Amino acid sequence: MTILGATGSVGQSTLDLIERNREHYEVLALTAFRDVAGLAAAAKRVDARAAVIGDENLLGDLKEALAGTEIEIAAGREAVIDAARSGADWTMAAIVGCAGLKPVMAAIEGGGTIALANKEALVSAGNIMMQAACSSGTRLLPVDSEHNAIFQCLDRDRPEAVRRITLTASGGPFRTWTLDQMRKASPAQAVAHPNWSMGAKISVDSATLMNKGLELIEAFHLFPPQPDALGVVIHPQSVIHSLVEYVDGSVLAQLGAPDMRIPIAHTLAWPERMETPCQRLDLVAIGKLDFEEPDLERFPALALAKSVLGEGGAGPAILNAANEIAVASFLDNRIGFLDIATIAGKTLESFAPAAPFTLDEVLEIDAEARSVAGAIARKYEI
Ligand code: NAD
Ligand code: MG
Q1: Atom 41 in ligand 1: residue holding the nearest Cα
Q2: By CB atoms within 10 Å of each CB, which of 35, 92, 108, 324 scores lowest?
Q3: Centroid of ligand 1 to alpha carbon of 117 (angstroms)
Q4: What is the DSSP track for 81-103?
Q5: Are residues 190 and 316 in the same domain?
Q6: Are residues 253 and 365 in the same domain?
Q7: From ligand 1's centre to the CA of 375, what distance in Å?
């Protein structure tokens, strides 16, 4: 197996499961962007064949950190892509952002099973990625907890029997905040997710609900639902991870503790099941489950994602790229929290390229959207 983004939150959860079952797995490659120490330590622990660092300037540091081992070393963007293509039976795609797109596409070329956490890649490339997976015979298993839940509940042989797919959302740390409070929210407050421990970018996306918007687009590609059959409900306890309603009125849901090792284990063992050390659900201790309608006025990012979902074309790639730029600016304390969705919306309005049909076209749109969003973001700088 290969783990792309091995030093991140999802990468580390994946490594935890592998380390508990060392005899079952052989690790081909681990990749990371800049965390040399984390990468080297993980590569030693799982006896990886190769360790690849995305930042080419860190080749020397990685060599030093892995001196005296047999682990092959490489650095640079192309090296990450090559590692992705190396033909693992199972690849965890857990790089954050559209930076993961080329590696995921290379992994798809390499074949095998891909556990897909990197939603931004699928949002940006949509049909192109799904078609590539289809023609190479690669199986994409969703890691995102909602999509993994849907995958577990969906009767793929009877798509016509599905009436509705509902994604649950915790509502994030600002679920009950007023717009005035949200305007002053700091990066530390935005990253403090009430239920899940995740990387900084997805934590901010959960606070704006852009994450749920990206997940609607992700679901649209993974489980081609009927138009208008996708919904979102706020469920603050994060116990129900998503629901599938059938024409007869039956609703199937997947429940579990909010621990990413559960969906990751599902994709690792699929179609079997494996033991995990995760906390078991105690429904009596939880007591009650709440549900609310999402508030599109306080969380306009969700409305933006819904609008591009309906229109298709270049919109999802533009929205994703603009959001990545805006979130990075916010995390850098350069713009306010509410400016994130404003910048994403203004970027979407400011140019309308033709729908992409190739990976290069997606990457061109992504690059242009980043530059437009960057220019807009500078106007909002505090
Ligand atoms: P993270 O920031 O914790 O980790 C990201 C990983 O990607 C790191 O290993 C980093 O080194 C690598 N990386 C970053 N930029 C890179 C680049 N330019 N080139 C190569 N590698 C690069 O992120 P995360 O929270 O683990 O999330 C990873 C992906 O999984 C995201 O797409 C996220 O939306 C998705 N996801 C995460 C969770 C979660 O619980 N964390 C849940 C669902 C989905
Ligand atoms: Mg999710």
Answers
A1: 198
A2: 35
A3: 8
A4: HHHHTS--SEEEE---SGGGHHH
A5: yes
A6: yes
A7: 25
| Minimum-distance ligand 1 atom for the alpha carbon of 7 | 9
Could you list the pLDDT tens digit for every one of the 382 residues in the chain?
999 999 999 999 999 999 999 999 999 999 999 999 999 999 999 999 999 999 999 999 999 999 999 999 999 999 999 999 989 999 999 999 999 999 999 999 999 999 999 999 999 999 999 999 999 999 999 999 999 999 999 999 999 999 999 999 999 999 999 999 999 999 999 999 888 889 999 999 999 999 999 999 999 999 988 778 999 999 999 999 999 999 999 999 999 999 999 999 999 999 999 999 999 999 999 999 999 999 999 999 999 999 999 788 999 999 999 999 999 999 999 999 999 999 999 999 999 999 999 999 999 999 999 999 999 999 999 8
Q: For ligand 1, which residues put their CB under 6 angstroms from it?
A: 5-11, 32-33, 35, 54, 80, 94-96, 99, 117-120, 144, 196, 198-199, 201-202, 260
The pick from 53, 193, 195, 202 for probing ligand 1's pocket by mutation, whose C-beta has the most ligand atoms within 8 angstroms, reads 202
Distance CA 53, CA 35 (A): 8
Task: Choose which residue among 62, 95, 140 to substitute to test ligand 1 binding: the one with the highest number of ligand atoms within 8 A of its C-beta.
Answer: 95
* Domain termination residue (choose one: 143, 160, 188): 143
- Which of 97, 121, 143 lies at the terminal end of a domain, its last residue? 143
Q: Is there a single domain that holds both residue 134 and residue 162?
A: no
CATH number for the domain that contains residue 88: 3.40.50.720
Neighbours of 237 (CB within 10 A): 16
Within 8 A by CB and 6+ apart from 278, the residues are 256, 257, 259, 261, 262, 265
Q: Assess contact for 44 and 66: CB atoms under 8 A.
A: yes
CATH number of the CATH domain containing 311: 1.10.1740.10
The answer to the question of residue 102 being in a domain is yes
